[in-house]
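Sanity check. The docking grid for zinc ion depends on where the pocket ends up, so I'm generating a full predicted complex first rather than guessing from homology. Inputs follow.
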Amino acid sequence: MVSNEELAGLAHRLVQAAYPELAESEYRVRYGKTSAFASVSWENLHDGIDIVCNSSVKKWHEAALLGLLAHELSHPAQREGTTSEEGTDSDVLRRCLGLYLAVERLLAGKYEDHIVKRGKDRYMGYRTIRANLSQPELVQLDRLLAELRLIPRKAADRERGVHDMARRTLPDRTILLIDGLQVELEGISSSAQIEAIEVESTLVVTVDGIESLRLERTDSD
Ligand SMILES: [Zn+2]
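Predicted complex below; grid placement will be based on this.
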């Protein structure tokens, strides 16, 4: 079990090693209430970045948590901020953290790419990430998988939750990126609790427990 302090320590190590643009930012990382594996929110980089991880990932190996945290840090770290899930995954690969992302995707049940936004966006699956790793990284990855006794395979129709949510608060609106789907909400305070859950193929967004948006998810995979 990775404690709250250890989780924050992992994020700190990542920033020190691979996110120089966030070195001056304040970031808070903890377990908390989120319907996704993790969610990240920020207004502007200097005011701080909040990352909340679902307590279900406490039992994940550190390597997978590094992958999850790297994806979340890459949302605000990209110059354009919230862009796409594929762009965010590519940003993680560019920072040479793909090995961790590969382990995370196995634990998140994404062996193949997870197509979202009607094919316009995707989370890279284990197989795609692996294809982008260098030979030394592959050696390291295979050593890690052996140690974890993790056998890469397609998950058998696992329950599909939301992977993550990025939330950017602007003066006049809040931009949410939920599994690659961008939605904007107005009149939401930065302290409001926003949750996204998938009910059958419908994505339901709630603000402080009240349903505020319902979107049909027609992506196929
Ligand atoms: Zn994301």
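Relevant for the grid: Helices lie at 4-18, 62-77, 85-94, 98-107, 126-131, 135-148.
Also worth noting: The chain is about 30% helix and 25% strand.
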